[in-house]
Amino acid sequence: MTETPASSQTIDPRLLEVLVCPLTKGPLRYDREKGELVSEKAHLAFPIRDGIPIMLVEEARVLDDQGSHS
């Protein structure tokens, strides 16, 4: 059994056309490498699990505008 890495998940392009950020109602950018839908306006990244976007603000990751500080 092998797990599917986030980078190999695909999302239907038609779904991307209709999805918007639940907070700002603005556009989302698909980050294939991280398996997320990114709202630049809200500074949030919504996860995609098993090909399904999780469009809940409480499930979103806050984007770090200061660069990566691990």
TrEMBL record:
Q: Which InterPro entries does the entry link to? A: Trm112-like
Entry's Gene3D superfamilies?
A: 2.20.25.10
A GO cellular component term found in this entry reads: cytosol
As for family, the record states: Belongs to the UPF0434 family.
Q: Which PANTHER family match?
A: PROTEIN PREY, MITOCHONDRIAL (PTHR33505:SF4), ZGC:162634 (PTHR33505)
Name the UniProt record assigns to this protein: UPF0434 protein NYP16_00480
